[in-house]
Amino acid sequence: MCRHLGYLGPPITLDALLLAPEHSLLDQAKAPREQRASSLNADGFGVGWYDLDQRPEPARYRTSRPMWSDRSFASLAGIVSSTGVLAAVRSASPGFPIEETGNAPFTAGPWLFSLNGVVDGFHEGVGVALKRRLSDRRLGGIEGSADSEVLFALALDLLDAGTPAPDALASVVTTVKELSGGRLNLLLHAGTA
pLDDT of 106-128, one tens digit each? Predict the structure, then answer.
């Protein structure tokens, strides 16, 4: 399973939030505690952050490399600060490719999204059933093959229809439970409270 972090508060550098603290997201990637499925979160990572003085859409950095081996991110993390951040390190579930497009956070408009978990049976028909529920617009926006991205697209359809964010996420969880189940810990961020 992946690890993720959402932040909304006073401006903070990405380094101070993700790399420097004791038991940081970086530490959880290298030496996760209480993780049963694997010993590392080495299948990539991503970070999305907001600068609402510049634009409402978040910036995003993601890669299929492990967080601890990415010197470019470490270099920029000390100078980029934000009041809203969503970050994730990935341990890909069996059957899912290790690719940048599979790494959270996923983004569309002002939204950032991450899943810590897995949709049971996604490759055995559940993924197809979930995709059938999507609008053409949101289905066409899917870049990769991750279950996370399909769940985000389901949430986006609900948000597009005016559903409040908490209700949209609850509806996505209910939909997955009706079809198969899984372990779903969802984060959705818009940069503001």
Answer: 999 999 999 998 899 998 999 99
Quote the tokens at residue 173.
Answer: 């969880």
CATH number at 92 reads 3.60.20.10
Asked if 50 and 83 count as a contact pair (C-beta separation under 8 A), the reply is yes
How far from chain centre, in Å, is Cα 161? 22
Structure tokens, 129: 């059933």
3-class SS at 138?
helix
State the catalytic residues. 2
pTM attached to this predicted model: 0.90
**Two tokens at 11?**
């401006």
- For 143, the domain range is 3-189
C-alpha gyration radius of the chain? 16
Count of domains observed in the chain: 1
The 3-class secondary structure across 140-184, one letter per residue, is: HCCCCCCHHHHHHHHHHHHHHCCCCHHHHHHHHHHHHHHHCCEEE
